[in-house]
């Protein structure tokens, strides 16, 4: 594009110059175009409001299960990803992504398994086609119990 100008009716004039490889001459095209912009709200905020350890029998105690209750503001998410990292949130240990269906209010419970006791950084990302939002927390898992 060799030049563009804007006018008060939100149209723009575009002058396009193309090289013609055969004859070495230029083709000029002038015209107007319009474009629409759709503004979407997106997922504005994610909060982890509760973390609950799931009590299991000793025969089931291979993995510690924790339920995360999550809320969000804005548009409704279509997928959730959970990244479990070391306590500094620098080294990722695992990542799980799942599609979700939220129909009315953004309040969901996410259950994740932890293979061994320890302190972990949890990043929960909610996403849709146009946006993502993240919440982080530190969690201490102690052989089936979390704090």
Could you give the topology of this structure?
Blueprint lengths: L2 E4 L5 E8 L6 E8 L9 E12 L9 E11 L4 E7 L6 E8 L7 E8 L3 E10 L4 E11 L2 E2 L1
Antiparallel strand pairs: 1-2, 2-3, 4-5, 5-8, 6-7, 6-9, 9-10, 10-11
Pfam family, one: PKAT_KLD
GO molecular function, one term: integrin binding
InterPro entries: PKAT (IPR045219), PKAT_KLD (IPR046846)
Using only C-alpha atoms, the radius of gyration works out to: 26 Å
Mean pLDDT across all amino acids: 81
Order of helices and strands: EEEEEEEEEEE
Largest sheet, in brief, is: 5 strands, antiparallel
Query: Which class of secondary structure composition applies to the elements?
Result: mainly beta
Biggest sheet, strands in spatial order?
7-6-9-10-11
Query: What would you call the shape?
Result: elongated
* Helix content estimate: under 10%
């Amino acid at each position: 594009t060799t030049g563009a100008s804007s006018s008060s009716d939100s149209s723009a004039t575009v002058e396009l110059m193309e090289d013609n490889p055969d004859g070495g001459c230029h083709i000029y095209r002038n015209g107007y175009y319009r474009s629409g912009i759709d503004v979407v709200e997106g997922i504005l905020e994610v909060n982890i409001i509760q973390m609950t350890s799931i009590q299991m029998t000793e025969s089931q105690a291979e993995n510690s299960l924790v339920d995360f209750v999550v809320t969000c503001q804005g548009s409704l998410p279509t997928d959730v990803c959970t990244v479990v990292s070391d306590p500094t949130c620098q080294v990722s240990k695992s990542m799980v992504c799942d599609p979700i269906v939220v129909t009315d209010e953004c309040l969901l419970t996410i259950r994740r398994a932890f293979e061994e006791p320890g302190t972990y950084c949890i990043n929960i990302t909610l996403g849709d086609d146009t946006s993502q939002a993240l919440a982080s927390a530190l969690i201490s898992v102690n052989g089936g119990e979390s704090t």
